[in-house]
Amino acid sequence: MKVTLLRKIPVATDICVFELASADGAPLPAFEAGAHIDVHVDGFVRQYSLCNHPSDALAYRIGVLRDAASRGGSVAMHALEAGTSLEISTPKNHFPLDDQATHTILLAGGIGITPLMAMAEQLREQGRTFELHYCTRDPQRAAFRERLAVAGFAEHTHFYFDSEGTDARIDLARVLRAPHDGKHAYVCGPAGFIDAVLSAAASAGWPAQNVHREYFGAAQQPANPDADVNGPFQVTLASCQRVIDVPAGTSIVQALRAGGVEVPVSCEQGVCGTCITRVLSGEPDHRDLYLTDEERAANDQLLPCCSRSRTPMLVLDL
Q1: N or C: which end of the chain has fewer CB within 10 A?
Q2: Alpha-carbon span 86 to 22, nearest angstrom
């Protein structure tokens, strides 16, 4: 879709909210809390969560952190000015709220607040019980503080700032105590923060299906220690039985592309799920941050942008 950048609003240190509207002024496609869009900017394609209320039909709002370690996307976004035309995808949602939850716990680390802000908006409007725990390095890096200070949010929101010392940091064991079937938790933020939440939830006895996470970018998962970390292997395209070599240090997507086979990709970090591909035979070496542990154990799909193979051959449904 073609959209226009209406406003770029600083909301915290190195964080701006970008307000996007349809280029022709028409209403934008509806979305659900937790959804994200792909944004094409300066030759990059990046995923950004929608942070406004899902009932907003006239504009999408995304929060973008200007990351010093950026691969280029966030720097390009922060260089944009109002009036710029952009191309975006329709909203996609791999991180939806559970409509049957009796209570919802939202845990945000840094810029991970963006999808959880939309969730808080929806839960507030629906009158459902929730709590939002928001962790940042210091108060100046906490986005949406003014919004979260109003009635309907303030009584549900808890801030934690590293700058205020160890005692001011979140106690995950306390926050995640007393799990039950109707309670759901959602976490978004840096990989270390998410892993800490998942570990605390597991220790407290949370059902795995009640803990939902979304990585916005991170290091890949560790490779299988029993395999040659980046060794060569082959993939077979099931539709034509063509065999393609995947050399050491080359991703499956790169090897396929070199052979004239295009697989849709976006983040190329194993985060967004765009390139997910069905596996018909062989055992993947999962390196993504998208599939759940149960999905990885099934070994019937993989993300070829980052994952490799534990067997000499993978047969893919391509």
Answers
A1: N
A2: 10
pLDDT in tens, 287-313: 988 888 888 999 999 999 999 999 999
Q: Which two tokens stand for residue 256?
A: 């396929």
Q: pLDDT by residue (tens digit) across 220-265?
A: 444 444 445 678 999 999 999 999 999 998 999 999 999 999 998 8
57: helix, strand or coil: coil
Q: Is the pLDDT of residue 160 over 80?
A: yes
CA distance 251 to 270: 11
Structure tokens at 180: 């039950």
Comparing CA positions, the residue from 217, 157, 205, 218 lying closest to residue 179 is 205
Listed in sequence order, the residues at least 6 apart from 220 whose beta carbon sits closer than 8 Å to its beta carbon are 269, 270, 287, 288, 289, 306
Strand order in the sheet with 60-65: 44-49, 36-41, 85-88, 2-12, 15-22, 60-65
Q: What is the structure's pLDDT at 225? A: 47
